[in-house]
Amino acid sequence: MNFNSLEFLIFLPVVVTLYWLLPHRARWVLLLCASLFFYMSWNVWLIILIGITTVTAYVASLQITRTQSARVKKAWLIATLVICFGILIFFKYINFIIESVVGVIRLFDAGQEDIVLNVLLPVGISFYTFQTLSYVIDVYRGDYPAERHFGYFALYVTYFPQLVAGPIEKPGTLLPQLRAEHKFNAEDVSEGCRWLLSGFFRKCVVADFCGIFVNKVYADPGSANGLAVFAASALFLFQIYNDFAGYSEIAMGSARLMGVKLTQNFDRPLSSASFTEFFRRWHITLNQWFTQYVYIPLGGSRKGKARRVLNTMAVFALCGLWHGANWTFVLWGVTAGVLVSIESLIREPVRAAFERSGIDLQSAGVRFIRRAVVFVLSVFCCVLFRAQSVAEIGAVYKQIFTAWGFGAEYIASAFESLGLDAMQFALLAVSLAAMAFIYSFPKTGAGALPLGNGARAEAGSEAAVYIYGVIAVALCWLALLAGSDVSSFAYFQF
């Protein structure tokens, strides 16, 4: 079931109510059963795959703990990596691999036919695979003791609020909270509800509404002018941000209703003044996973500039491939890696040049320009993320850089391509203004209240919080009543 479905709005209150009614010793059973039911609601048979991953990691971690032989420990770790990554690669990437091989064969034999396997992509497989492997690697390194209670470990892997799209929780962050005896706390419930309201608003109002105009332009980018295509790409940045941040906030809110605090996954990335800052604030737990388990083991930044750039490029290429089995995602990852690497190489020379000229890089004006540059380049990167093929990427960039003009007629053509009439433009403006309203709250402060992923409002704004919440709930219910207009979260099948 999707978070933005009527089924989930019934499922969550039932689970939370039973959770607080049951004694502590029975709560893990409830949560595990609820999590398995939640996952099987997409496809009953997919539980076999997550079961194999769970049992493999559980057995391997116990064997790693019990043996004193470094060789045996490594063998169990390698076996786990092979099994878990093997499942992930087969179900997510097998057709991509076959398609790429067929493409190479066609260079020599134009008559080679397509080969496609009918393989179902399991929901959330990238997320729960990475979370499970972080546990086994931490046990192997001695950073976390092996969990001997299979029920609690299975709950760690399948915990429904963050099962299908994260955040990717480390064992030391989530497992102790699942084991702890939580007492009912009105503050937890209040904060959880606010996270839920913010998340539903982001997804059901901002993301889905932006998606209408994005889809219209990207359905035939060659027929739209440069302004329309750039505007659609910018709206896609808002769409994917609010879609994923909305999911993360609903996950945080759902867990908080039961006293569990999930890791913040976004920290206002759209206000970043550099690409390095942007990716540290965007999908934080995935960034931390790649940093801890790939970048640092490769040598990180400890072996010179050339090796640092190479490691950065490797991590971003893998990150792009993690997002989807398509060369467009690989190109997105490589492009992001190039931008971050360039920043790392020119950071000190640029800082020194600005200091000599007496310009403060942290001044409001300079930071505004830096943020504007990062935003525009992020929009261009979004083309790689949104396009369905390399050919479509070329078509979109061609329109952005060549199909420009001036005057009222040109602007009217852009509005027509986007499908924006006066009423829809007003609604879009209100939606984006509401997003900015959430986004602009200070992150810290005495008596601060959470109102968005990484944004906090002062206690004096509590009335505004509830007004916003009532409006968000009303809009969400209207979206749900629309039935077919309710879309799934973009990251559910990553």
Radius of gyration equals 24 Å
Helix and strand sequence: HHHHHHHHHHHHHHHHHEEH
Which structural category do the helix and sheet elements fall into?
A: mainly alpha
Task: For the largest sheet, list the strands in their spatial order.
Answer: 1-2
- Give start-end ranges of low-pLDDT stretches: 442-461, 481-485
Estimate what percentage of residues fall within beta strands. Answer: under 5%
Query: How many discrete domains?
Result: 2
Shape: globular
Distance between the termini: 16 Å
What's the helix count? 18
Helix content: 55-70%
Largest sheet: 2 strands, antiparallel
| Quantity of strands, as a count | 2
Mean pLDDT: 85
Structure notes:
- By secondary structure, the protein is mainly α.
- The chain has 2 domains: 6-181, no CATH class; 188-493, no CATH class.
- It is built from 18 helices and 2 strands.
- The protein has helices at 6-21, 24-40, 46-66, 70-106, 125-141, 150-158, 171-179, 186-218, 226-256, 275-281, 284-295, 305-323, 327-357, 364-386, 390-402, 408-418, 422-439, 462-481, and strands spanning 449-452, 455-457.
- Strands 1-2 form a two-stranded antiparallel sheet.
- A hairpin with a 2-residue loop joins β1 (449-452) and β2 (455-457).
- The protein is globular.
- The chain starts with 5 loop residues before the first helix and ends in a 13-residue tail after the last helix.
